Each structure stands twice: as C-alpha cells, then as structure tokens.
Give the backbone structure.
Amino acid sequence: MTSLEMTQEDRTRKKYLGIIRRTRLTRNLTLIIPSIILALFVIMAIFANLSWLGLPHVGLAPHDPNLITMRDQYLPPAFVAGGKSTYLLGTDKLGRDILSRIIYGSRISLSISMLVIFITAFIGTVLGIIAGYAGGGVDGFIMRVTDVALSFPGLLLALLLSVAIGPGYWTVVFALSILGWASYARLIRGEAMRIRQSDFVAQARVSGASSVRIMLRHIFPNIINSLIVLMTLSVGMVILAEAVLSFIGVGVPPPTASWGSMVNDGRTDIDTAWWISAFPGICIGLVVLSGNFLGDWIRDKLDPRLRQL
Amino acid sequence: MSEIVVQVEDLHTSFFTRRGEVKAVDGVTFFVRQGETFGIVGESGCGKSVTGLSIMRLLPEPSGQIIAGKIIFEGVNLVELDRKKMRAYRGRMISMILQDPMTSLNPVYTIGDQIREPIRLHQALPENMIEPEIIESLRLLKIPTPETILGNYPFQLSGGMRQRVVGAIAMSCRPHLLIADEPTTALDATIQAQYLALFKDIQEKTNVAIIFITHDFGVIANMCHRVGVMYAGKIVETAPTREIFKAPRHPYTVALINSVPTLERKDERLFSIEGQPPSMLNLPPGCPFAPRCAFAKDTCRQQEPPEVKVGSDHTVSCWRVD
Amino acid sequence: MTRFIIIRVLQSIVALFGILVLVFFLVRASGDPMRLIESPNMTTAQYEAIKAKWGLDKSWGEQFILYMGHLAHGDLGKSLIRDQPEIYMIKLALPNTLKLIIPSFIVGMLLALVLGITAATYRDSFWDNGVKFLAVLGQALPGFWVAIMAVLIFSVDLRWLPVAGMTKPANYVLPVGTMVFFMMPGMMRLVRSSMLDVLDSEYVKLARIKGLPERLVIWKHALRNALISPLTVAGMIFAMFITGAVITETIFNWPGLGRLLVEDTFSRDFAGVQAITIIVAIFVLGINLLVDISYAFIDPQIRYQRS
C-alpha cells in the first residue's frame, strides 16, 4: 500500500468517526436537559407551598395564586416597561400573579398526568396481556373495543361527561382515563403475543403452569420495558390533553389555576396583554417537549424496535 | 484458462457505529473466473455477506463504507465509479441473490411484475418480446408451467418456488457475475440439493461466474470450484475445493473441516473450536485466529501473517504454514 | 375480500350500538336527567311533554326502546336552549365544519406525505433534521397556544390576516393552519418511520440489486408498502382531527359543529351534546370502516385470503 492510499483511508475513517462522536454528544444532551427541566417542574409543584409541612405561606410561589388585586391588573412582566418587580411574569385581568399561578398550575398538570398514567397503564396492561395471551375471540373482542376507544375523540367524551356529572378534578381524571388505556392495550397485546411464542412460555405450559401464573411470571416481566417507554412518552400526551380540556373550559374549574385555562383566560386580551397566554403555553410546551425527549432516550436505550411510537 | 471476471484486491469495508468502527472486511483479496464458482465460507459475522454487498456497492449508508481497496470487474474498478455508473452494472452485469425468499420479494406486486422490471430496464426489447423473455427466465430456473404463476403474489408460493423466482429475477438479464448470499440456508434440505443442481446447470448454460457465500461446507463441496475461507474479516486460505478438503493448511480451515460430522467418524465426539470469534470493534494485533489457535506462537500474536503460496492455486495466511 | 368487508361492517354496527348504549347510560347514570333539561322558562306543560316523549318516568328499558325509536326516525331531540330540533342545528353547522376539515385534511396529508417521505429518503440530511425538528415541536407545543400566538403575530401585529369571518380565502389561512398543526406532525413522523423501515427491507435491496433508478425504488417499491402502516392509525388521526376542529372552531369563532358542541356544553343543553356525539360517532365509525376497506385493496394478502 502506498502512503497515498493510507491517507485516503485515514481521511475516510476520520470523517465517519467524527459523525459518530457528534451523534453521541447530542444523544447525551437529550437525556440531561429534559431531565433537568422536568425535575425543575416537579420541584415547582412540590414546593409551591409547604402546607404539607404545616407552613402554608412558605414556598416558591411569591403570591397567592387566587388573590384578586384589581389595582394591579394587566401588569406586564417585570422585564418589560410598565412591569413591577413583584410580579415577575405580570398579572392577569384580575390582578393575579402569573408566576404564582404557573407554579400552582404545575401541581394540577403533574398530579393529573401521574394519576391518569398509572390508571390507564394498569387497565391497558391487564387487558393487553389477557388479549395477547388468550388470543381468539377474547383477543378479537378486546381489540375491537380498543380500536373504537382509540378512534373516538376524547374531547367529545370529556364534554359529554362534563355535562353529565359536572366539571371537576376527578371528572378530568375520569375523562382522560376512560379512553387513554387503549394505546397501552394495543402495545402490550402485541408484545404479549410475541412473547407467547417463545420457548420459555411453551416450557411453562408444558410443565402445567396455570395461565394466570404464566401471564404474571413470564409475560409481564418481559413487557415492562415497553411499558416504561410508553408511560414516559405518555407524560407529554396527557399533559397536553389536560391542557386542552382546561382550555376549552371543562378542566379543573376556576379559580384553580391550570395552564390550559390560563391560556384561555388570556385569549380575549391577546392584543393588549400577550403575557397572560404566552407564559403558560411555553410551560406546557417545555414540559411536553422534555417528556418526549426523555421518552425517546429511554426508548432508544431499552427497546429501539418501538421506534414507531 | 478462462478470463478473470472480477478481482478483489485488499478490500477494506467498515461500519461506523455508535460504539466505534467495526472492521467488517479487513483486507480481502480473491478473484473469480468465467464459468467458475468461488465459495466464501466462514462463521456468522466473519464478513462474508459484507464482502458480497461491497462488490455490489449496496452497503447500508451512511454507516457502511468501503474505505480502501479495489474491485476490478472486467477491467473497471467499481470502487471508483459514481453512483449512476455503478447502477448501470447492477442487474445487468452483476446480480445478487439474497438469503431469505420470504422477505426478498415485494409483497404487493405480482411475480410477473417483479421479473418484468429488470428486463424492461436493461434490455431494449419491443413490448411483445418481453413476456416471452420473462417466461424464459422462469424456465431457466426450471419452474414448471411458468405462465400460471405470473399473476401470483409472493405469499401464494412456497419457499422453494420463491427462491427460484428470486433466481429468475437475478438471471433475467444474463449477468456475468452472480453473488449468491446464503441462498439455500432458508430452504429444506431436499430442496437445497435441487436448487444447487439447478445453479450448476445454469452456470453451464450461461457461463456465469458465481460467488457463493455460505457457512455450510457440504454446499461448498457440492457446488464450488474454488474456496476462500474467511475469518474475522480476512481470507485466511484460498484453494481449489478438492485441495481444501484433502490438504487444508490453515489451522482454522483444519478445525472447520474437522467439525463437520461425517458418517465415517461415528464413534468420535463432535469436534468444536474453542473460544469465540473476536469482536470486530477492537481487533487485537496479529493474526485474528491466534487466541483460538492450537499452534499459535508469539509472532502470531504480534504481527499479521503474510499470504504464502503453498500450491499452484493455493494460498494461506499463516505464520506456521511450514 | 367480500367476507372481510361484511365482517367489518357488522362489527361497525355493533360498535355503534355500543356507543349509543354508552351515551344513553352516561347521561342517565348521574341522576335524574330532567334536572339537566329543566329551565326556568319552561311551562309545566312543556316539562311534562318532554318527560313523556323521552319516557323519563318509565323504566330504563322502556326508555331505551323509545330512544332507539326516535333515533331510527332521525329525531335527535330538540335543543332545549334554542327551541329548535337538533337535526336542524346540526344541518346548519355541519357544512361549516366540513369547509374547515376537508381543506385541512388535504393540505395536512399532502404535507405529511411529502415531508415524511423526503425526510426518510434523505436520512440525516439538513432536510431530514428540519422535518424531525418540526415534528418534535408540533407534538409538544399545544395547538391552541400556537393558534393564539399566530393570531397575535399575524392578525394583531402584522395585520396580514383577518381575525374573524368566513367569506374570503384569507379567512381560511389561520384556521386551516391550526388544524394542520394539530394532525400533521404526528402523521409526518409516522410516514417517515414507516418509510425508514421499508427502505431497510430486503425487497428494497432487491430492487436496487436489479439496478433500478432510485426514483423507481422509492416511488414504486418502497412507497406502497410504507403507506400500509400509517393507514392503520388513520382512525386515531381522525379522532385528533375532531378534537382539533372543536378547538379551532372555538378559537376562531367558526360556526361549525365544534363550536356548537362547546356552546351546548356550557349551556347544559344535553340534547345538543348527545345529538352531536351520536353524529360524530357515526362519522368516526364510518371513516374507520372506509379505512379498513381500503386496506383490503392495498394489501393483496387480505384480498385473497383471510390474513
């Protein structure tokens, strides 16, 4: 090999190794940054006030989120002309502090999404494992119900429920859960079907294990990876869904602050007081974005086959 | 002696992955003549499929790259061609058969459609001559009543039939070189024999040069004129088939041949080679087989062995060849 | 294939029935539905008339039969607030919603297809990275917020586009844009990943082995297979569409079914909410059925045998 050929080879090597190194760096960033952002919001939610420690007036939120001060209404954010430093992100039309409402709003968004995720994951996993393992008519039935649940617009159902049982925190949880289990059911069923074909399941059946035992001890541990990926990716979706509900007006009822309803509050005054809608929306976007990136990272680590999620 | 159709010289192909550079093909040299079948044999992961894909320049981009070496096909170095020029060779002068007939055929198009495509592309035939040409290709692969399957979809045919269709597509434009990447691995044993006989017949009729990639020595014995034994991205021994079986010189070849159970040695234990093939991410210096070699000496572990000629058409890469 | 279609149609009818039952029970399960219907303007006569018509003083079984009977006649009840039959309200609102949905669907699908396919074909290129960025933003930023910001920027600050009205084409830009923002990123992402999967397949490799020009490889071989997967979630996408329509109509005061639904919700017009839910359910099931049937045309395996 002449020395000229050597350098060409090395040049090609260098080029492609460089590409690899850059991808690795971005991959690490997609773990660190979203995690920090999410952690910040969780801290915000927990430490909004310390009433759970018996100190209701101590906390991150500078003001009472529901305190109406008409003389301080429509104040722009502190960094814009006309703003006051006590209201960092400005006030809304009732003089309530936007920042404090955002901090308390994180409680609503995060708590509802945690609840809904666990409820839907549970229901969806149970149905999915049963469908995937049993096959046949049971599978067909569960899958049809799942198909309908997946293709039915959740907002419609939420509106119906709001009329039927009245708006409220638990109505929102119910509305989001009643259809949300479907994506879990579909995914877990696919996984369960795949695992059912494996040798160790055949082994268990041959040795006389009951179906329930097989489902619990063999199938479930093998679907946990997919479950975790979907649960993490769901965080963004559920928070968005809750925001949509409260935007329309069927979320957690006023005066409780929820990011979605805050965006709606600022809608009519968008031309004069853009900050009322802007900041809550940015928060929603940040949390959902972080949740999605984190979910992607976890999926790439645990099971890249699930790329289509 | 017939002409050399393709000559591969010191080919280096690597995959650039998240975990670093994988040197799939690490300096491979061989040639194939007209009408001759050259077998590449080795364990899974030794780089034989990648060699085939490199010749076709069909490596998965952007991770797979040919980083050095020449592939001289009928006087032209394929490595230096741009995409457009390379495409002109594919299907017409060089063709390939893939391993799994279930997945190599496009499920949404009929058999007739799929064979028609390369014919229409590469051969300047008037419309009414194309159908007979399709049927002729199917006949070459000894498919009975070819007219009946033209309208069928792949899922309607058996595995053996499908592999014949794949063969028909490959031979439809009478290429000069056919690369067969483990075409019989997914077939039943009985069908395998038929398929191999079929290809020998085709080779006689069309004088096509074949590179046959496999891990099965039985297939090599049946099908190939000359063999290259591949290990960890390098060809360690090249020889005519008869000689490889009669007088293998590289310790790896010896071990491989011994590990094929035969009817004669019924009472002995099954022989297997100790250890694992090396990780292609971090190849140790020296001969790649050294860690598993019974004859390894210090030089083996420090320096790569040179290619040594031990017969009229027989080369070995080993320090301990004498 | 006919067998496949018949089964699907039957399943859809069963599903519709199931939804009707669900809606029926949901509304009545929370207590006396008359409580919801009551309004101070009602005379005792009207009250009794409604009660009798819907059989609210009878057992649930009898009520259900009455309910189904009314539905079969196309009578969805009377809006309690407007004193108009629901069918009439829906007939007024539906065309407006369609005026919004159909252009949004066409634009959104085209964009999703073109962007998704080109992103997959030129993987990791500048274009692909742009598409991926757009998909990420589109799935994270709340659509209603983007719409409001768009109104702020384009209508208020720049004065390029009008805020309200339905007459000029310019009126359509923001609402259709909002709708597209809702559903396009998800679809685009799906098309892209499905295309990536197909591009990795053996038969695409074979197409290249044949020496086919890249153009043919992509458009003939890869595309048809790549479209199968996104089709399976078309039903889900349609659901997102409906949600998007409700939100868009609310923001832009568009007089369609979505806005009607929200108004009815807040005025506690449960006949209205029930009626619209039923109509939408019929649409949803209908679209799903259509998708299933077109699936049969694309995938020959379903055409020739039960897969």
Observations:
- The two ends of chain C are 10 Å apart (CA to CA).
- DSSP finds 15 helices and no strands in chain C.
- The interface with chain B takes residues 124, 200-203, 205-213, 216, 221, 224-225, 298-301, 304 of chain C (CB under 8 Å).
- Residues 264 and 272 of chain C are 6 Å apart (CA to CA).
